[in-house]
């Protein structure tokens, strides 16, 4: 079976889309699939990371103009503008034209698309060059031609995609299908046991995205320096190697009165999370990693498309939302009141085996009878 992923990372997009696709690619590889990636060379891309773990990447050239939240200036009037259109760095028509030659060569059985800037326009243009299409989405804001669609977010249901996918599209929705690396399921029991009665904070883990272009990490560290923490508290900051503020964060960490270390491109995230008492994290894909391990979390919404899910999690007492970095000292002061409840409710969200469930869908014969059909 041949599988091709169309996915990007950038300073604006972040790293989560590529990382969850890598998780699925590794699971499919274990089933014998040959996996390829198509990625554009945006600033902050993860092309080298994908190559280092053993997958071939077919690169698309980035435009010289930087990405913005506005529609690309050369967006075709024939294309329905998408809210995240600028994340593509070009038009859907141009992107499809560049991908066409690659897909003609690869002839994938499955094309997997994880990109907020692509919809049925792009999918239809490339339909002759793949057998089946899977879409990974979180938003439910555009139409797809998918045979299989995954939305791994808390509270997502099939109804979210009514009238957005073909009637015979099978929908996998909810955190039961969260794409987590196997290490999280492996560390789950240890992590849950060690924090079952813990109301003390001795180890804080900060994960505000692989890129963190707006440098929220610096703002959090500044507030931690003002907080009344145990002098023995240890802080660990996780960042991507391409993060633009990595060096500045290293310097800031060295000057803090509390022991603080900065790590880039870690390969043992599950272990680090399992040994932390509290996480201060972005409301992105790492949310499900923290939930799997029952890690109490103060969550910062750094992208508008994360807000709805973050608010739902906070309402269910699964996370605490940090509306502004200045509020951090107060949240920490009251942490003993909510740490255990947060840990218990978080671990009920996902068991870390979602990628196995999703990978099952690729084992022949394809399960036609289980597909979702609208009433």
From TrEMBL:
Residues 204-324 form the Glycosyl transferase family 28 C-terminal domain. It comes from the Bacteria. Keywords: Hydrolase. InterPro entries: Glyco_trans_28_C, PseG. Transmembrane segments: none annotated. The keyword Hydrolase applies. One of its GO terms (molecular function) is hydrolase activity. NCBIfam families: PseG. PANTHER family: GLYCOSYLTRANSFERASE, UDP-N-ACETYLGLUCOSAMINE--N-ACETYLMURAMYL-(PENTAPEPTIDE) PYROPHOSPHORYL-UNDECAPRENOL N-ACETYLGLUCOSAMINE TRANSFERASE 1. This is UDP-2,4-diacetamido-2,4, 6-trideoxy-beta-L-altropyranose hydrolase. The gene is rkpO.
């Amino acid at each position: 079976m041949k599988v091709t992923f169309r996915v990007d990372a950038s300073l604006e997009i972040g790293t989560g889309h590529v990382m969850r696709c890598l998780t699925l690619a590794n699971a499919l590889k274990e089933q014998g699939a040959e996996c390829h990636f198509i990625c554009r060379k945006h600033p902050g891309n993860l092309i080298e990371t994908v190559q280092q773990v053993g997958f071939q990447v077919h690169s698309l050239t980035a435009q010289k103009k930087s990405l913005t939240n506005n529609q690309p200036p050369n967006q075709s009037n024939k294309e329905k503008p998408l809210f995240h259109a600028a994340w593509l760095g070009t038009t859907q028509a141009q992107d499809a034209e560049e991908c066409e030659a690659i897909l003609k060569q690869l002839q994938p059985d499955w094309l997997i698309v994880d990109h907020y800037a692509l919809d049925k326009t792009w999918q239809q243009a490339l339909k002759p060059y793949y057998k089946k299409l899977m879409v990974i989405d979180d938003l439910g804001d555009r139409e797809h031609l998918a045979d299989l669609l995954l939305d791994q977010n808390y509270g997502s249901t099939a109804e979210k995609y009514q009238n957005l996918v073909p009637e015979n599209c099978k929908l996998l929705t909810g955190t039961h299908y969260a794409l987590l690396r196997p290490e999280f399921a492996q560390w789950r029991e240890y992590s849950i046991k060690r924090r079952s009665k813990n109301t003390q904070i001795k180890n804080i883990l900060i994960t505000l995205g692989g890129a963190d272009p707006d440098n929220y990490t610096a703002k959090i560290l500044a507030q931690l320096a003002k907080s009344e923490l145990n002098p023995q508290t240890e802080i660990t900051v996780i960042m991507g190697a391409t993060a633009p503020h990595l060096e500045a964060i290293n310097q800031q960490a060295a000057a803090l009165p509390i022991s603080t270390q900065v790590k880039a491109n870690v390969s043992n995230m599950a272990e680090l999370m399992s040994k932390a008492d509290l996480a201060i994290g972005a409301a992105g894909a790492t949310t499900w990693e923290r939930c799997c391990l029952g890690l109490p979390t103060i969550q910062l919404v750094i992208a508008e498309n994360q807000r709805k899910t973050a608010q739902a999690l906070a309402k269910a007492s699964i996370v605490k939302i940090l509306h502004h970095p200045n509020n951090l000292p107060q949240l920490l002061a009251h942490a003993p009141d909510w740490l255990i409840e947060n840990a218990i409710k978080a671990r009920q969200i996902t068991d870390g085996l979602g990628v196995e469930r999703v990978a099952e869908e690729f084992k022949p014969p394809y399960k036609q009878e289980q597909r979702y059909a609208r009433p």
